[in-house]
Amino acid sequence: MRVLSILAASALCVRAQDPALLSHIREKMAGILLRQPNYTCTETVERTRQSVGNHSKIEDTMRLEVALVDGKEMFAWPGSKQFEDHDLSDLVSTGMFGSGNFAIYARILFLSNVATFQDQGETQLDGRRAWRYDFRVSRLTSGHRLRVDNREAVVGFHGSLYADPETFDVRRMEVIAEDIPADLNLLDAETTVDYSRLRIGEEEFLLPIESQLMMAMPNEVDRNSVRFADCRKFTGESTLLFDDPVLTDAPAPATPQEVEIPAGLTLQLDAPELNLLEAAVGDAVRGILVADLKNHGRLLAPKGSVASGRVILLERHPNYFLLHIQFRDLDWPGGHARLKLSFDRTAFANRLIGRQADGAMVISRQAGPRLSGILMFWRSE
Fold this sequence. Notes:
The structure is a single chain. Helices cover 11% and strands 50% of the residues. It has 381 residues and is mainly beta. The chain folds into two domains: 213 residues, outer membrane lipoprotein receptor (LolB), chain A; 119 residues, Type IV secretion system, VirB10/TraB/TrbI (Lipocalin), CATH 2.40.128. A hairpin with a 2-residue loop joins strand 16 and strand 17. Helix 2 crosses helix 3. The chain is elongated and about 80 Å long. The chain starts with a helix and ends with a strand.
């Protein structure tokens, strides 16, 4: 047994020093990328911002669905009926958010010949053997875009990848932007992506499981910590499965009556069940109408109607939370109304919950992290 162990260790050493190791890594990664199906994962992003010379941080958490469809990243809110090919800023209008860490970097490095590589030899990564290669992609060929506010530019990038010398699986990729134009007012942008094997359907694929993004500006540093989970095949809404026989004589479901809610009405809603320490931007919320909604004596929506929407802002400050909920729909048996509401106040003039000019709630940490059992008043717009 001892001889076999020595021979095996020797074989490992020779294999790791094989000058064709990079070719094996690139070939395997290209094969994985080309045969992996369109898929989607839940992406949870923890965001922090730190001003230079100041230790205080603004933290929030965001949850999105990200899909890789025909090599392109697409985003949607969790539970949305479909992914849309729209600009990411339509979903994420504030703070820093990065795209590309899901799959784009890997496709640039392993499905094209625009990168140059340099062998840096064996190293340790999380206590395991790994082989490191440094790479560089010029701005002329990268297609890598950085956007700051409304300014956007193509930049080059360099970095390192760490691969298992036995399986040829990439375990980590580090990407650093270079040749950043001065008008972006950006000093540095770095991304780290960790990979692991995950099952999609009946097969295993090498997928990103975590990433870190850092962007440094003259007066502040933003950091995003990203986790991917619940990865599954993306089938799209066009795929319909009918396992039961079609009953041609079954009555068609009744179409809900559409009701228009005029501006200036007050809706009394039970506060949605939210834990402000665990909730995230993008989470779906619902509130229950606790009194009939009427206009000049005419019933528009009955008590018990369900208002549904999403968290669009949730910042965790040292002494308070800043929460903005956007309700979009009001549903009851046989009826539906589109909503555009702004938060007005809570019952009993609760001093622990205030209102900003933009309709966001300012919730003192003294009120506790759970938002429930509170009567809230909202104004229709």
